[in-house]
Design a protein that fits this description.
The protein has 536 residues and is mainly beta. It has four domains: 218 residues, Sandwich (Jelly Rolls); 89 residues, Sandwich (Immunoglobulin-like), CATH 2.60.40.10; 80 residues, Sandwich (Immunoglobulin-like); 128 residues, no CATH class. The chain is 3% helix and 40% strand. The chain contains three helices and 38 strands.
């Protein structure tokens, strides 16, 4: 049909010609395995498509209807070779033009019907833009109450095709104005799929009707099966079904066919955090709260079937545990016992792992089961792991246990020009010149613990006025120590070293200086800061 005919000119045809194109299809029932969209009650599920006014029309070479043989005799709907020569652009039922879907209880043109026999526009729910150019695909699953022949009537303006069980039953192409055809179809008892395609391509007239006219005619089977919703959780998985990050929640629903092999389509999906207050799902959402969050979800189809509420608990712990030692690192004069304590307010503590050799602990390291004995100098490193798999930072405590012996290695006495030394055993001080001096060390155990804790240093026969300072070096020589090695010193102890002068000493007070002391433990490592009282 040319565009001029399309917009106004109508061509009528003799009744004989209309009867010549009448098709009566006798079908042996073959139920389509593809589930059909179904109405919530008895009705047809219609998908509506809006076409632009400038969409190419179907006819070339002024073909005018009624016209047969434009589409193949079986679904899916597609053109024949003849149809390809007549139709410019057969994409009327593409998703790009889809506007909405709804259930049409009746499409017979009677009061209350979704369709009209004449002037069928505007479409309820209003197609946008140019509503006169549109297409509809109705589908339903019919139940034939008995095996036999069923009569029907279909009328349309412009183009319509009727398929039952996937086979073409009636084709009304290029009809202007609306014309009616009566037909019949043989159906076995039970379900049968019906598909009706209608296209309106003009601005002057539109109409469509379809109905069964036989008593006890087939009626659409309602959808009574609820949809099924699946949930997808996207986050960083930890241990024991915990997540250690925010979790993105995605819901997807399908309206699957039940025993009736019909679907009405998903109307909406809902979710809730309490199972009472529901929100319509519009896209992925994020759960960020730590702890356990329950997400409830369900879907409702267009037939009103409500899915049984589903739920999933999302456990999130993004915070590492905390861990501490009850004994801080430092220098001690006796072995220590250390207790480790960890806490985690979300998933709970799985364990504490530690090492005593200055290596970094892992979950393969010794697991803490009780207080740790520190009998000797050690570097304790430890960390905690929660049940979600989060690990605390590694903590380090360095313990110096000074149970070894202290001793004096050497001594120098300085005067105005002469160096004074003592031998390694500190049995005396020898002056390099002809002058002599004697140093006496007296050790005492004042608290009766078996270790000397007081030393008295006496310098005898010293030359008056020569000694600006006396320096005692205390360090490890790697050999058997002398008696002062029994002295016990720790960070909380003080060692009083007194320089005692003989009654005959003539050293003047202005020449008396403090004694500088440098301590080392047996392995040569500095033990830390110590305070010592020096008396002159």
């Amino acid at each position: 049909m040319s565009s001029s005919v399309k917009t106004g000119r109508r061509r009528r045809f003799p009744l004989a010609l209309l009867m010549a194109i009448f098709m009566v299809a006798t079908l042996i029932m073959v139920v389509d395995s593809v589930p059909v969209q179904a109405a919530p009650t008895t009705g047809y599920y219609g998908t509506y498509y809006n076409l632009p006014r400038n969409h190419p029309d179907m006819e070339q070479n002024d073909h005018n209807g009624p016209y047969q043989g434009l589409v193949e005799s079986t679904l899916p709907l597609r053109l024949t070779a003849l149809g390809s020569t007549c139709i410019h652009q057969f994409d009327w039922y593409d998703d790009q033009y889809k506007v909405f879907s709804r259930v049409d209880t009746k499409i017979d043109g009677s009061p209350g019907s979704a369709t009209k026999a004449s002037k069928w526009w505007p479409i309820p729910n209003q197609l946008p833009g140019d509503p006169q150019y549109f297409a509809v695909h109705w589908e339903a699953m019919l139940n034939a109450p008995a095996t036999g022949t069923y009569n029907f009537q279909m009328g349309s303006d412009d183009d319509s095709w009727l398929f039952i069980d996937g086979n073409l039953v009636l084709e009304l192409g290029n009809i202007h104005p609306i014309q009616y055809t009566n037909g019949s179809v043989y159906l076995t008892k039970g379900p049968h799929r019906i598909d009706i395609f209608f296209a309106e391509r003009h601005t002057v007239e539109s109409g469509f009707v379809f109905k069964f006219t036989s008593p006890n005619a087939p009626v659409p089977i309602p959808d009574v099966t609820p949809p099924v919703t699946t949930i997808t959780l996207n986050g960083t998985a930890g241990n024991n079904s915990w997540y250690v990050s925010d979790v993105q929640v995605t819901l997807s629903a399908q309206d699957l066919p039940g025993p009736e092999n019909v679907v009405s389509g998903v109307d909406r999906t809902e979710y809730s955090f309490d199972g009472v207050n529901w929100s319509t799902y519009g896209g992925p959402f994020t759960v960020a709260n730590e702890g356990s969050t329950t997400v409830y979800y369900r879907s409702i189809d267009k037939a009103g079937n409500v899915e049984a509420t589903r739920e999933v608990a999302i456990q999130i712990d993004k915070t590492p545990p905390s861990v501490s030692a009850d004994v801080p690192g430092g220098s001690y004069s006796s072995p220590r016992t250390v207790t480790l304590t960890a806490s985690d307010d979300v998933s709970g503590v799985e364990g504490i792992y530690y090492t005593l050799d200055n290596t970094t602990p892992t979950t393969s390291s010794p697991k803490y089961t009780g207080p740790i004995d520190i009998p000797a100098s050690s570097v304790l490193k430890f960390m905690a792991v929660d049940n979600a798999g989060n690990q605390s930072p590694v903590s380090t405590e360095t313990y110096v246990i000074m149970t070894g012996k202290w001793y004096i290695y050497a001594s120098k006495q300085k005067d105005t020009g002469n160096d004074w030394t003592c031998n390694q055993n500190f049995t005396g001080v020898t002056q390099l010149s002809s002058d002599t001096a004697q140093t006496v060390i007296t050790l005492s155990d004042t608290n009766a613990d078996g270790k000397k804790d007081r030393a008295e240093v006496t310098v005898k026969n010293a030359f008056p006025g020569y000694y600006n300072s006396i320096v005692l070096d205390v360090q490890n020589i790697g050999t058997t120590p002398i008696s002062m090695g029994q002295v016990k010193i720790s960070g909380n102890d003080s060692l009083t070293i007194r320089l005692l002068e003989s009654s005959s000493s003539t050293i003047q007070p202005k020449y008396r200086k403090a004694i500088g002391i440098d301590f080392r433990v047996n392995d040569g490592t500095p033990p830390g800061d110590y305070s010592f009282t020096v008396s002159l």
